[in-house]
Amino acid sequence: MGFNRFRLILGVRIFLLSVSLFGVMYLFLNTQLTITVVMVALLVIIQIVSLFIFVDKTNRLLNSFLQSIRYSDFTRTFQVENNDSSLDQLKKTFNEVISDFQSVRAEKEESYHYLQTVIQHIGIALIAFQKDGSVELINNATKKLFQVRSLRNIQALRDYSPDLVQNLLTIKHGENILVKIREKDDILQLSIYGTEFKIHNRNIILVSIKNIQHELEEKEMDSWQKLIRVLTHEIMNSITPISSLSSTVHLLMNDIIETIDSKNECTEEVENLREIQSALATIQKRTEGLIHFVNTYRNLTKIPNPSFSIFPVEQLLQNVYELHRQEMTEKGIICNISVLPPSLELSADEKLIEQVLINLMTNSIQALTGKPDGRINLKAFLNKRGRITIQVIDNGPGILPEVLDKIFIPFFSTKTNGSGIGLSLSRQILRLHSGSINAFSVPDTETNFTLTF
């Protein structure tokens, strides 16, 4: 409406100017009225100047509006004088347009803050960066995972893990990769998925990073449990009848030998029967040993559900220490207990966690047997991710790197008489507590078993 009125007024001005010009030409050519011609000519000049001022004022108003749009300055308003002029109508239209832009900007800012809030609160680590490694966005989960307050370039993670940096910089669109990071008190299995897109002629790589170590351990333990159930079932089905039959035949052979001995007949036959009886006794003993072996491994699938309670960690470590104090004193092993803060409390099944620590202490004491300066450190603290951590550290011979990844596998043991169940059982107990147990070792220097809750 403002523009229509502006066009109407402009048309009227041009029409009047045209009439005035025509009048000047007519009077100049057909009359001798010099003063009248001069006055009409002055009127034409005044009309031209007025038209120029009118158009220039409109142009300056339009230019000011367009500058506001260009620089997104939507705080500017145009003063309306309420004289119902065409310029006032144009100003009203400009103010309405700016108001609409303000509403759109407010909606965009609300959407931006909403997305930022979602990104910052999501539990999966997100990093957006350019090809050169310049980081454009990280969320709180990323900061917590890598223990950083800010991240300007992917290269800053090289001290944390060179493999991680290399994989991030070379990841392709739609690619999913796994990166394993071993820390002294934790192991991370990172699943990284990357996607690439373009914004304002900039190629952006967005990666999501999730630690799937706990899920992998659960799958591994579930697989072992299924295997153990099948094996123990099949073995027991085969061994139990053999044990029963060998015991029965052994008793029958004993009766036959006693009968022959009472008659003093065929000494050579008796000797042969005794050899058979001895073989049967060996078979029976071995089958009983296998039955005991199978029953032992059934424990991996029969751990009771934890009965959670809150208890002081320091008291737990003291109890474990008291159980082994005499043995450590006899072997000259020094044990130190450290709990920070001293009031640290844990929500778990105290008896099950105590059993895990007893197993670890027993292993450490056996490893330190014969070592003149044996030391065991029991530590409890909050790790850098804020999780309760308990460590059993000894300065024994350590564990070789090629063996370290196998020690939690059922049936695997580095000891001559080991059953291979202790550490597997410990990992299963920690899994039931939604925790983890990991080992770190430097041969002939230190072995560190870490429980994280």
UniProtKB/TrEMBL annotation:
<feature type="domain" description="Histidine kinase">
    <location>
        <begin position="230"/>
        <end position="453"/>
    </location>
</feature>
<feature type="transmembrane region" description="Helical">
    <location>
        <begin position="12"/>
        <end position="29"/>
    </location>
</feature>
<keyword id="KW-0902">Two-component regulatory system</keyword>
<keyword id="KW-1133">Transmembrane helix</keyword>
<protein>
    <recommendedName>
        <fullName>histidine kinase</fullName>
        <ecNumber>2.7.13.3</ecNumber>
    </recommendedName>
</protein>
<dbReference type="Pfam" id="PF02518">
    <property type="entry name" value="HATPase_c"/>
</dbReference>
<keyword id="KW-0808">Transferase</keyword>
<keyword id="KW-0067">ATP-binding</keyword>
<dbReference type="InterPro" id="IPR036890">
    <property type="entry name" value="HATPase_C_sf"/>
</dbReference>
<dbReference type="InterPro" id="IPR004358">
    <property type="entry name" value="Sig_transdc_His_kin-like_C"/>
</dbReference>
<keyword id="KW-0418">Kinase</keyword>
<dbReference type="GO" id="GO:0005524">
    <property type="term" value="F:ATP binding"/>
</dbReference>
<dbReference type="InterPro" id="IPR003594">
    <property type="entry name" value="HATPase_dom"/>
</dbReference>
<dbReference type="GO" id="GO:0004673">
    <property type="term" value="F:protein histidine kinase activity"/>
</dbReference>
<keyword id="KW-0472">Membrane</keyword>
<feature type="transmembrane region" description="Helical">
    <location>
        <begin position="35"/>
        <end position="55"/>
    </location>
</feature>
<dbReference type="GO" id="GO:0000160">
    <property type="term" value="P:phosphorelay signal transduction system"/>
</dbReference>
<dbReference type="InterPro" id="IPR005467">
    <property type="entry name" value="His_kinase_dom"/>
</dbReference>
<keyword id="KW-0812">Transmembrane</keyword>
<keyword id="KW-0547">Nucleotide-binding</keyword>
